[in-house]
Design a protein that fits this description.
The protein has about 250 residues and is of the alpha/beta class. It has eleven helices and eight strands. The longest helix is centred in the C-terminal third of the chain and has 20 residues.
């Protein structure tokens, strides 16, 4: 079974276009969680262009009060501001990404050989505080031994190229093969595997069918696009169906 974490950044980006409190991030999170999502994901960037530190604190309070069995996954670059926030909100999972603050979205994984020492220090500190740690990674099998050396619990495989190949069956198969090889290499190193970026309902089904051991997918952009048609609750259920299919 693959867990679904609903990424709320797109909804926050829409909210921030106006000085109004809607769409309400907490209300959307509550709907998704009531529909069965295992948790929510946020990426509070320094410029607060979408989810903000206040949103993260409010989501922690919502989970504690109404959904104590669900998880808060907080993504970001491990600068002091970010690390202080994840400790404060007791993030269940911390996903470290190598983003430059100016990046529009996460689009590449860590260079584990060059940044492994730094990551190992950060991972150790996070685990001392009780966080599960996942590292954003390109889907390259040869990277997984270096990822494991950091002491992380999981890797999150970047699925952007796979998601972007939805209209090219040959490339889609090639990217899915690459993801499967990386997942197998990660698991051989004792790492669990998460995945995320540009996953549609159909893409999620194909991914989980090919790699049923994926522990979690984090999905935001495509999910909220579908929600314009189907609503948050029904869209969440559609993704959950895709997460729990292993027979094609």
């Amino acid at each position: 079974m693959t867990d679904l974490s609903v990424n709320l950044n797109v909804a926050a980006l829409l909210r921030n276009r106006r000085e109004h409190p809607w769409p309400d991030i907490l209300d959307l999170a509550r709907i998704a969680l009531n529909a069965g999502a295992a948790g929510v994901t946020v990426h509070p960037r320094p410029d607060e262009r979408h989810t903000r530190a206040g949103d993260v604190r409010a989501l922690r309070a919502l989970l504690d009060a109404e959904f104590p069995d669900r998880e808060l996954n907080v993504e970001g670059y491990p600068d002091p501001r970010f690390l202080s926030l994840v400790h404060e909100v007791r993030a269940d999972q911390v996903t470290l990404v190598p983003d430059d603050p100016a990046q529009a979205t996460s689009d590449h994984g860590w260079d584990f050989e060059a940044q492994g020492v730094m990551l190992a220090e950060v991972v150790a500190g996070l685990k001392e505080h009780g966080h599960r740690v996942s590292l954003f990674s390109d889907p390259e099998a040869e990277h997984m031994a270096h990822a494991a050396q950091t002491g992380a619990d999981r890797v999150e495989l970047y699925t952007g190229p796979f998601g972007g190949s939805y209209n090219d069956p040959g490339t889609e198969k090639q990217e899915l093969d690459r993801l499967a090889e990386a997942a197998a290499a990660a698991e051989a190193q004792g790492l669990k595997v998460n995945a995320g970026h540009d996953l549609t309902v159909n893409g999620t089904r194909k991914l989980v069918t090919r790699i049923p051991s994926i522990a979690e997918v984090s999905i935001g952009h495509a999910l909220f696009c579908d929600a314009l048609t189907f609503g948050i609750a029904e869209t969440t259920r559609r993704y959950l169906d895709s997460c729990n299919l292993s027979d094609g």
